[in-house]
Design a protein that fits this description.
- 33% of the residues lie in helices and 14% in strands.
- The chain is of the alpha/beta class.
- The chain has an eight-stranded mixed sheet, with helices on both faces.
- Helix 13 links the parallel strand 13 and strand 14 (464-470).
- The longest helix is centred in the middle third of the chain and has 25 residues, at 209-233.
Length: 541
């Protein structure tokens, strides 16, 4: 422990402190808060009364809780400072109920998603997932909307509690999700079931090979239960995924890749319906936006004009006009790749999926890059994947919209940003830039942070603080320290800004009301509670 009167040897950079934390056994995702302090040990750059804050993350559902704790004057989930009165800006709209200015509002409502079309057609729909993926089958699949349409039922199975990481319980709640799928297959009022098995994606982000294998095999085992029940009840079963993950678990140099991939995902049509044709032809390839039109095609419903995706069913004169019950099963993170090396799906026991793939018509679907509204050559993610599965069309993602705004410089005249800067100057208060620190993440990118720093420099602000959240997903070891140091270099280069807080995204970006985690992040940001960066310097010099 640092002596209270001892001056830290190095308070100029948080990079060395993060690297020392790695050596002490910590990792990016759950990094305990590290705080920059002055020569007397006082935390620097805390979020205080009347300050301006720009939360530059772009995804939304994991950002709501920490935003609410900082902006809601009636917040009561844990003790919070009263009267902060922050001028708070979010990059996109996280939730319409939040007291925040929004820099990039959604362009327009995504009309006529799969759920909306089923509802307007009078069909009952049941959506099933565990709580880790509740937002994906709900908010994202409904076109980034919280609307629950008439006839749409959502069944959310709680994810396991009391586990620090899901590699401690890679089975998660898959068996209970499967129980609900089987129950709804037997409900005569429900025409369509959409369900998600979360394990492969969630556990695949953790560097624990045996746990990943158990996650894959758990999903395959529960898939087998669904297939058996679909066969027994003569249900049409579609099996697909939203993006790849552990099928490419190694980089070429042999290091572990805990992120998403660019590989295609499976589409299998296991038609057990009593009036199925003798042969079913599918197009051999497509993209995620083709799934919703295919479901409607199987139901004998016309796709709305907004759905520019194409049905994967090949035209045949003898194919029936519609099926009975349909189950759309999403194996989250289940990518397809021929190579055995580093392919943890191929190396696991998956007899049920293998039998489906061999026995039934199948296709490969693009689930990354431009096919899901992302920049060319970028990996897919669960949010873009579920959005496109439900929308049945390509939708330009927020990251691309904001990237283009930076390129055409409209970013620098964004009125929400300018209001925050003016507020900081008029009140003579600090500007805080808060968000993920990563080269590429579904939550955001340091490129947007760099643009905000340039905006603050051009406005002549002198008191600008950066609070960064890190988490190694699709990044190599020690990526958090690498990117924090890049931000620190940019601050020095521009002559504005200072990184004063770094902590793992596990604490700050919760979405399941784990308020103890959010409180840890809050207290780091507001009160400076955490390990002073100098402590690590003292211990490792």
């Amino acid at each position: 422990m640092r002596h209270p009167n001892r001056i830290p040897k190095d308070v100029s950079s948080l990079g060395p402190a993060i690297r020392a934390a790695y050596r002490a056994g910590q990792e990016d995702e759950a990094l305990e808060p590290i705080i920059k302090v002055d020569a007397f040990g006082k935390p620097l750059g805390r979020i205080g009364s009347g300050d301006a804050v720009i939360f530059y993350d772009i995804r939304g559902e994991r950002e709501i809780e920490i935003t609410r704790s900082l902006t809601d004057p009636d917040f009561s989930r844990f003790p919070a400072a009263k009267g902060l009165n922050l001028h708070f800006v979010t990059m996109i709209e996280y939730d319409p109920s939040l007291r925040a200015d929004v820099a990039f509002a959604q362009d327009e409502k995504v009309a006529n998603t799969l759920a909306e079309v089923l509802s307007s057609s009078g069909l009952r729909l049941a959506k099933i997932a565990e709580s880790e993926k509740a937002a994906h089958i709900g908010f994202f699949m409904n076109g980034k909307s919280d609307t629950v349409f008439p006839g749409e039922e959502r069944i959310i199975v709680p994810s396991p509690e009391g586990v620090f990481n899901y590699d401690q319980k890679p089975e998660m709640s898959a068996a209970s999700v499967a129980d609900e799928i089987l129950r709804k297959m037997g409900d005569p009022q429900v025409r369509v079931v959409i369900a998600n098995f979360a394990n492969v994606d969630v556990v695949g982000h953790i560097e624990n090979r045996p746990a990943v294998a158990r996650a894959v095999e758990t999903v395959d085992g529960q898939l087998g239960r669904v297939v058996s029940e679909a066969d027994r009840r003569r249900v049409t079963l579609i099996v697909t995924a939203d993006h790849g993950t552990v099928e490419e678990w190694l980089y070429p140099d042999g290091l572990v890749n805990t992120g998403h991939t660019k590989n295609p995902v499976p589409f299998v049509l296991a038609d057990f319906s009593p009036d199925r044709p003798a042969a079913i032809d599918l197009r051999p390839s497509g993209e995620l936006a083709d799934v919703a039109p295919t479901v409607l095609d199987l139901l004998g419903l016309p796709a709305p004009i907004e759905m520019t995706g194409r049905s994967l069913l090949a035209e045949r004169p003898d194919r029936p006009t519609k099926r009975g019950k349909i189950v759309l099963l999403i194996l989250d993170g289940w990518g397809m790749r021929n190579d055995w090396e580093g392919n943890l799906i191929a190396q696991s026991r998956t007899p049920n999926f293998d039998a489906l793939w061999t026995r039934f018509p199948h296709a490969l679907l693009e689930s990354s890059g431009e096919a899901v509204g992302l920049p060319p050559g970028t990996v897919g993610n669960s949010e873009a994947g579920h959005l496109h599965l439900g929308a049945g069309r390509r939708i330009l993602l927020d990251r691309v919209r904001i990237d283009r705004a930076v390129e055409d410089r409209s970013f620098f005249s964004n009125e929400a940003f300018l209001r925050a800067l003016r507020t900081a100057m008029e009140r003579r208060r600090a500007l805080h830039l808060m968000g993920i620190i990563s080269h590429y993440s579904s939550h955001g990118t340091i490129k947007h942070l760099f643009a905000l720093l340039k905006l603050a420099r051009d406005a002549g602000l002198s008191e600008v603080y950066v609070h960064g959240f890190i988490g190694r997903r699709g990044e190599k070891p020690e990526s958090g320290a690498i990117y924090v140091e890049k931000v620190e270099d940019m601050c020095r280069s521009l002559g504005v800004g200072e990184v004063v807080t770094v902590l793992g995204r596990y604490w700050a970006l919760d979405r399941e009301e784990n308020w103890d985690r959010v409180e840890k992040a809050y207290r780091a940001l507001v009160y400076g509670e955490g390990t002073p960066a100098g402590n690590f310097s003292d211990q490792n010099t």
